[in-house]
Amino acid sequence: MAPTASRDTLPLPRRHDDIDVEWLSAALRAGGLDVDVESFTRLPLGEGIGMMATIELIELRYSSGRGPARIAVKLPATNPANLAVAMAFDIYRREVQFYTELAPSVPEFAPTVLFAQSDGVGDFVLILDDMSDYRLGDQLAGCSPADAELAVVGLGRLHAAFWDDVDRAALEFIPWETPSAHGDALRDGVIGVWDSMISAFGGVVPDFMQAARDDFLAAVPGMQRWLATPPVTVVHGDFRMDNVFFGRSPEHRPVAAIDWQGILISKGIRDVAYLISQSMTIEDRRANERRLVDAWHRTLIECGVGDYSAEQAWDDYRLGVLTSWAIVVLIAGSLDPSNARGQAWITEMIKRSAAAIDDLQLIPQVATFIDGVDR
């Protein structure tokens, strides 16, 4: 069990400005470290990082005891629009529960948590080990083919650990793709913000996607049902480059993910399709997507998954790319990036996702979900 503390004994800071040496000392002691923090230096991350929350690195100096020289502290978003989305999807409580209840099952794929606490509503705090020695992915620049292969192998190991075995008490806190409050919020959100997406980013949404508006929105419930059809597993839910670290040295993990706030029970291909179609450049995706899906599938088989063919994996990938457009709509239509980098990576996400849908000739598949003929 990961370290936590009672809400009654340790109030939650709402903003990074609220953090002081007394609170840091108490939180680290609650996490099992016998330390007193003497002083600290805040190191804000670059703009566009952590849109659904705020993240800062903190360098620590101690008056007694020994602890980490640097930690990452994650708090709720301060932007009202992004905070509203986070609250609608209950993502803060979900991420804290991931770190306190599930992360020990996948220690090679998630940061070490030093302290985790949530009020179960809208306030939370996570203190995680520093991964600044790792290389953080860059959503705007795109994921290289070599990094994408590391990522899909890591995803394969995560997915295999829970493949068609999700009826466990430890997983009860994770919502299903549908039926769930998460699924309802996603469906209603996509329907509600499509026009806002066009208003903000219509210049980069291609005509064929704009023409598919009514059919796609009508198909969202069927797409959700398909994603909830076995085989299902635990998925990260927001596996994009700004949430992925790559090891630089032999003692590092090859790849590790942060932002587990979107964790779901769904098809594993959801993570893979989202990564390849929205985090890779169009050219790199075209040249490598079949090989990368095969690498993910091969990892599943090596980890003991049976009765799931490479051909089925590819078919699922194609439909997964189509269903991932719903995430594009939700992000582009509801979040306020408030900075140039956020605007830029959302623009690239739209271009990449639409190009993948076009390249794979997926628009005709939309009708199968409207008719309820979910493949």
Could you walk me through the main structural features you see in this protein, from its secondary elements to its overall organization?
The chain has 375 residues and is α+β, with helices and mostly antiparallel strands. Helix content is 45%, strand content 14%. The chain has 13 helices and 10 strands. Residues 4-8 have low confidence and may be disordered.
Q: Brief description of this entry?
A:
With 375 residues, this protein is an alpha+beta fold. The chain folds into two domains: 16-129, Phosphorylase Kinase, domain 1, CATH 3.30.200.20; 135-370, Alpha-Beta Complex (Aminoglycoside 3'-phosphotransferase, Chain: A, domain 2), CATH 3.90.1200.10. It has 13 helices and ten strands.
Taking pLDDT < 50 over at least 5 consecutive residues as the criterion, the unreliable ranges are: 4-8
Strand order of the largest sheet: 1-2-3-5-4
Whole-angstrom Rg = 20 Å
Task: State the total count of DSSP E strands.
Answer: 10
